[in-house]
Amino acid sequence: TYTARYTTCKGSLIHTAVKHTLSVTHTLWGKPEQATFSMASGGQGLDGPPGSAHQNTNRLSMERSPYLLQHAHNPVDWFPWGQEAFNKAKKEDKPIFLSVGYSTCHWCHVMERESFEDIEIGRILSDNFVCIKVDREERPDVDKVYMTFVQATSGGGGWPMSVWLTPDLQPFIGGTYFPPRDTGHRPGLKTILLRIIEQWQNNRASLESSGQRVIEALKKGTAIAASPGVGPPLAPEVAHRCFQQLAHSYEEEYGGFRDAPKFPTPVNLIFLISFWATNRSTSEGAEALRMALHTMRMMALGGIHDHVAQGFHRYSTDSSWHVPHFEKMLYDQAQLAVAYITAYQVSGEQLFADVARDVLLYVSRDLSDKSGGFYSAEDADSLPTMASTEKKEGAFCVWTAGEIRDLLPEPVEGATGGATRADIFMHHYGVKEQGNVEPEQDPHGELQGQNVLIVRYSAELTATRFGLSVEKTKEELAAARERLAEVRRGRPSPHLDTKMISSWNGLMLSGFARVGAVLGDQALVERAEQAAKFLQDHLWDEAKQVILHSCYRGDEMEVEQIASPIAGFLDDYAFVVCGLLDLYEATLDTRWLSWAEELQLKQDQFFWDSQGGGYFCSDPTDPTLLLVLKQDQDGAEPSANSVSAMNLLRLSQYTGRQEWARRSEQLLAAFSDRLVKVPIALPEMVRSLMAQHYTLKQVIIRGQPSAEDTASLVACVNGLFLPHKVLMLADGDTDGFLYQRLPVLATLRPLEGSATAYVCQNFTCALPVTCPEELRRLLLE
């Protein structure tokens, strides 16, 4: 769910335009306050082909996006986003109905079932509008433009998103989920459609002018550019303010940064640990670390964490991380793996390493394609049983007390009172006979009598309760979880979105590389390399020298591409570059540095704003996009500008290109106003600002790649959380990538034939060391 901010933060110009739009909204469906809609999650005609089991089939049947395919048999004359739809709207002079969602969005499913499968509503839509369906994950550029409009005009946003446009793609009204027909004071989709048709015929000029005013205001209000002669703000002050804003929103009992719903927000957690790393001796530094670690412990114990099949659900509907919204997103797994391994680095607490491994186990098993790529998401909804006809949220993941008693009936030897494995499991995971989900957490009654597993006691307390050793208790709980996992594998599976997206694969590449490097787990590092090769093989167009945004799993389990592949967006370049830099530090193989350098040059060419600084989210020359935006919020995913600011700093160290360090500074200057006023909106960018302020250390290992002493020094570096460093291997190959770009490396010599570590700043180095313990001391100074 988005937070509306333009009406409050971007000035009176937008406020005036929005006020005019709301007056038009009043004309369409009642009082202005009714325009603030409730939040939500998030070539052929309509006749089915001969012999088809479907009564209706539309153009979306030719697409590869799982979300578009879900709508391929609606009685709606859907078009994908593209010129065919635009031409039809202009030729027939009809308004466009734009519907945006994604395949694992619960409320998107609801609106499809209620409205888009309704014959009467389908006829109204098809006869009077050009209907366009967009997968927001496939076309984030389109989604961002129209979500910005919806945020500004309705006070909120989310998916499904419903927007009405002129044939020139100008929006004039928008919202999120609508019920099919009127309910109480809330107009239904049918009523809204009929009123829009009436207004289009009788009041068209007002509709068009209202939308134009908002778009023109948004063009000015969303502009982000550096003021002439102004550099980035002071990092210590911005970081301190970001910490204070997070501390103000922190929830003490269970961690996290609001009461409910609660989102994992890995960008906040990693910022807090980075803030601690530069403020270790202060009370605020200690508080930042406590906040981050407590939040991650509570999340790991909560129902948002899948205790049976691993991974994390999207968010918690309550403050205690208990009852989640059950979908699982690849980008969450990727960032949480990094957050948990970072927590392990700074605390040494085994729980955090175990959770990081747990996340990667889930991704390897359930979100991995044989090509090496990663799928996008797993749905929240599924059929409770093979005989069921109606899906329910969480059905795949929840349990009744009776089921657990039937599955775990074995008495446990030595347990007090003849307790069974079920007794121990139910006590530990808070299972209740009547179910453990409160009615207010289950508005549709889908979880009645069900239990969402949540760790209620430590292994030590559970062991004491049943008179067992801690080791025996852990064994029993592990055996019980495996039995439940086996049963879950026999349940109807949730829908899997098998779209493979460059940006999210880049994030996941970082997850496997970072965790593998810290734990010294070669299998995880090799999985990261497989992901990088997948990106090269399937999402890099060698002929055109561009990243492609997405590819798809075909019917025969092969990787497929659509006829007109979608060119990569800023996120795709930035996240893949970051993943490649992390993969280099895990493997010290310079081919990944070489490709990262190549991609950064392309990113600069396609997206850099040479006038205002910073990167545009999408191609600024695309005539179908009414707004040219720079993402100014680190949310469920970090802003690509935040990631790019750090990428540029890291790459400047690896390549000697000082223009990249200057470009990072220009980027940070462009976002200066946002960083100063609301740094909590950009915690990842604040980390980049801190790195720019404190400057990056070069940790150079002079040794042979396969030598044990080299590996020992590298392991020492990887074991520590050092937010302001780059690691590189100087192997003596003067024709290699690094030596060609950094001639100073040729002056570094191994001491007495042993692998030697040099810790440098601006390539001015401290005395070299050969002992891992000495290196550790040097790095922590």
Describe the structure.
There is one protein chain. With 781 residues, the chain is α+β, with helices and mostly antiparallel strands. The protein is 48% helix and 9% strand. It is built from 29 helices and 21 strands. It has a five-stranded mixed beta sheet, sandwiched between helices. The chain has a four-stranded mixed beta sheet with strand order 19-18-20-21, sandwiched between helices. Strand 18, helix 27 (708-718) and strand 19 (725-730) form a beta-alpha-beta unit. Helix 11 runs parallel beside helix 26 (683-694) and helix 19 runs antiparallel to helix 20 (522-538). The longest helix is centred in the middle third of the chain and has 19 residues, at 283-301. The chain starts with 5 loop residues before the first helix and ends with a helix. It holds the Pfam family Thioredox_DsbH. Residues 39-58 are annotated as: Disordered. One of its GO terms (biological process) is carbohydrate metabolic process. This is Spermatosis associated 20. Residues 57-219 form the Spermatogenesis-associated protein 20-like TRX domain.
